[in-house]
């Protein structure tokens, strides 16, 4: 569907994180419609034309009171069980706080230290990638003239010891009591968009939410979600479990930031209104404390993450909304828009019964509009009666004038008869011209048949060419499939073996086994290439080894390998890729240019021998 045919709308997406289980229970009861009170008439329609729906375990069901009660009971039971199993005791919480302070001191030291080697060493020890070796660490600090070396060593030792104690003594019961356990996501098409309240629109919102989080955060389950069709807007509520099912950690915020960073890196040209992610050093001022610096950095990073997440969700939503004739866009950030959003935020903080726009006030507004319309219709009807009376008087006077007009028309009729006789004469002349043009038309028809025959012949030739192109396309698809299944793994394995040889050389180990595997890999790759493509591939393998200072002769194919290649070319059809004539010539010229380009001497050559 063309973008010009889409209705432009706005979206409101709000996230609420719950560590306070009382707040979670209250919001969940509202979504389940279990909070019945004297303000229900203000909050939602008690007799809606469509029922509300809930999605639990991927199954959508009408939301009944019995089902709502069962969902709440099951969820509370599961949540309490999880809390008992994972929440840290006072003692563990105290130990984790000590670990956090030690980590904070280490990060502060890292940020204030310029040598990259020290940063990499401390980070790898903190993340458990390597053990702490006091002698190595002390030598590294001495090398870069770091002061208070003993204190630096004690700090890193204390951190690794404390981290090991916590992991050994309480690996499962280490979740802070203040950690956010559930996120509520509310997605709304605001009322000013003037969309009818329909299940089709809430289905669109549900699909957008579920697919977005299942695709980008597959290790966090959507516990349940609700479609409310008894209020004044199309909107849904979804409750997301913030515990990572893969790692068991509550690391959703870190996952969001990682996703935002990757999305921004892929799409930053289209996100020209959003600058890059903030850096800690951007908030460093001479008189600003580290605490304020960190606080501002964290706050700005969260703001940046929210902007990128919103842009990503809008892109995802619009990919689905086009089928519904909709497209969501950001409104321009004007003063009026800012004030309007501020009022909406203030209204959202009030109970629904106290909002200026709720179900009850919307109903009153609708009745008032209907009354105004009826009053206008009544005034119009009264004016119509007056106009009709005036028209009747006008018609009476008009009848008199019509009689005089009839006499005039009879005189004009006699004159018209004379004109008709003249027209008959002209008609005869026109018939002659028509007969003449008919003859010309028949001549053109004959010419058309001849042209049609020629075009039919050309069309048959075109069909034949299309069929040949289709056969070439089929061969190309077969080659692409073979590349993905056979050639790509060999290309990747080549890079891995190159890295192994380079590593063996750095470690002064014998790389012979890797050279042997690399030669075998080169033979397998060559056996799947046509003649011209194979020449180019073997040339580039040798040049790549030379560029890395490796012995290319150990990978060169021997006489027996060439015999096997000849047999493979003759008796098998494994050769899936080859150059055409033009590509072969281009590759040949590229090899010549590379051979003419001066190169650094190989470690396997004598730099003083001009004949090598």
Automatic annotation (TrEMBL):
<feature type="coiled-coil region">
    <location>
        <begin position="364"/>
        <end position="493"/>
    </location>
</feature>
<dbReference type="GO" id="GO:0005856">
    <property type="term" value="C:cytoskeleton"/>
</dbReference>
<protein>
    <submittedName>
        <fullName>Uncharacterized protein</fullName>
    </submittedName>
</protein>
<dbReference type="GO" id="GO:0005200">
    <property type="term" value="F:structural constituent of cytoskeleton"/>
</dbReference>
<keyword id="KW-0175">Coiled coil</keyword>
<feature type="region of interest" description="Disordered">
    <location>
        <begin position="583"/>
        <end position="612"/>
    </location>
</feature>
